Amino acid sequence: MSRTTIPTSEIRTDQAPAPAWVFSQGVRKGPILQVSGQGPQDPATGVYLHEGDVKAQTRRTLENVRAILEAGGAQVSDVVMFRVYLTQRADFAAMNEVYAQFIEEHVKDGPKPCRTTVFVELPHEVMLVEIDAQAVVA
Length: 138
What we know:
Layout: E1 8-11, E2 26-29, E3 32-38, H1 54-71, E4 79-86, H2 92-106, E5 114-119, E6 129-136
Parallel strand pairs: 4-5
Antiparallel strand pairs: 1-2, 2-3, 3-6, 4-6
Helix pairs in contact: 1-2
């Protein structure tokens, strides 16, 4: 039986922070685009922004995810799943408010993306949120 090779490409953009370790900002395999977990970093400097402000961190993180989606040929409306990682349950409502605004701005029609929120300890103490995404691109 022959196996068809699905084209795979690494996604890179200077509009999102460079990966801190050995992984890609995003990978597209056929129509599937996976964006690695992003945090509230400045794309140009990699500096973590908005210490202690989960709303501002959520917005910055979503903008980083969006930049990688767009570099891979996708839009927010192509996302089928966001995963949000928070360090504290108390931050859920504030994160959710900013997330909802972002989705309303970028998904004008059709179903909203699925989402899972998980409470974890993140790799940098200043990080209150990390978000990854998976999109399907036609």
